[in-house]
Amino acid sequence: MPFEYFEVTAEVGIRAWGETLSEAFAEAARALFELMVDTQAVRPQRTVSITVSAESLELLLADWLNRLLLERDRTGCVFSEFRVKIIAQERGVALTAEIAGEPLDRSRHDPRIDVKAVTYNNLRVLQEPDRVHVECVLDI
């Protein structure tokens, strides 16, 4: 499993990784939703396109995950598939994504923790020789 959780007082931390930035950001999204529901039970019935831009990769990570929470709140859907593309821009970075999921079904999705927001504490994006590692803290 290419993500894990770490202890933070009154919050939860996510640490995710992938071979590329796009994979690491997708795994962070999967970790976010796995904390909230059983993503294995979420069918990719509805697709949403997302575009986010930021001045840095760390801010992009927080904005990306917060945008996913906004989509959850706006549509009532939970998501299980995340196809992410990250592009360098003249001033910062941008992310485009296709996410897929379905409306929350409490009988199938095993609701867990309600995540309120991604904080700006401990935001990290580390590009290591063999993988990319991202970290953030969630307000629950």
List the helices and strands and how they pair.
Elements: E1 3-8, E2 11-18, H1 21-36, E3 46-54, H2 57-75, E4 77-89, E5 92-103, H3 106-109, E6 117-118, E7 124-127, E8 132-139
Antiparallel strand pairs: 1-2, 2-8, 3-5, 4-5, 6-8, 7-8
Helix pairs in contact: 1-2
Structural overview:
The structure is a single chain. The protein is of the alpha+beta class. The chain has a single domain (3-139), classed as Archease, Possible Chaperone, Chain: A, domain 1 (3-Layer(bab) Sandwich). It is built from 3 helices and 8 strands, in the order ββαβαββαβββ. It has helices at 21-36, 57-75, 106-109, and strands at residues 3-8, 11-18, 46-54, 77-89, 92-103, 117-118, 124-127, 132-139. α1 (21-36) packs parallel to α2. The longest helix has 19 residues, at 57-75. The protein is globular, with a radius of gyration of 14 Å. It starts with a strand and ends with a strand. The mean pLDDT is 94.
**Global structural class:** alpha+beta
Separation of the first and last Cα atoms: 22 Å
The Cα radius of gyration reads: 14 Å
Question: What is the ordering of alpha helices and beta strands?
Answer: EEHEHEEHEEE
Query: How many H/I helical runs?
Result: 3
Level-1 CATH class name: Alpha Beta
Using the coordinates shown, work out and report the CATH topology.
Answer: Archease, Possible Chaperone, Chain: A, domain 1
CATH homologous superfamily grouping: Archease domain
Q: Portion of residues in helices?
A: 25-40%
Poorly predicted runs are none
- Which band does the percent of strand residues land in? 35-45%
Q: What does the average pLDDT come to?
A: 94
Q: How would you sum up the major sheet?
A: 5 strands, antiparallel
Which CATH architecture is right? 3-Layer(bab) Sandwich
How is the quaternary structure best described?
single chain
Number of strands: 8
Q: How many individual domains?
A: 1
Shape: globular
